[in-house]
Design brief:
Blueprint: E1 13-15, E2 18-24, E3 31-32, E4 36-43, E5 46-47, E6 53-57, E7 60-63, H1 64-67, E8 74-75, E9 80-86, E10 93-103, E11 113-122
Antiparallel strand pairs: 1-2, 2-9, 3-8, 4-5, 4-10, 6-7, 6-9, 10-11
InterPro entries: CGDB
Organism: Sphingomonas ursincola
Family: Belongs to the C-glycoside deglycosidase beta subunit family.
Length: 124
């Protein structure tokens, strides 16, 4: 549904201790952070461990475990969040980036995972 808009073009960058990119929630409504069950990041075929992923929205950063019990913050429709991977460095140049977001929707009898891939360049 919204997966083609999930990864923000041109957003891949090096950060202290790793790399980051911007992403939008692949859902037509906002969700409380506790309803985002997982965010998986794969670059050039390497999937990074859950423990290395950080999520930042409106200047507040969370581990994925912290998001499980965050009931007072949301990821709003169309809002860009920063997804960081710590402990991993990427070489400058082009990379195939895949992000998979698993979310809990109250009216669905299953837990959907939306996946998007995009070729992004990391500046030198």
């Amino acid at each position: 549904m919204m997966d083609h808009k999930m990864i923000v073009a041109g957003s891949l960058k090096a950060v202290e201790g790793g790399f980051a990119l911007e992403a939008r929630l692949p859902y037509y409504r906002g969700l409380g952070l506790s309803m985002v069950e997982d965010i998986a990041v794969t670059v050039d075929g390497t999937t990074y461990p859950r423990e290395a992923v950080r999520f930042t929205v409106r200047d507040t950063t969370y581990t994925l475990d912290e998001m499980e019990t965050c009931y007072d913050n949301r990821w709003n429709f169309g809002e860009k969040a920063l997804i960081s991977v710590l402990g991993a460095e990427l070489a400058p140049g082009d990379h195939k980036v895949t992000v998979a977001v698993r979310k809990r929707i109250s009216y669905l009898p299953f837990v959907p995972t939306m996946t998007a891939s995009k070729d992004l360049a990391l500046a030198a």
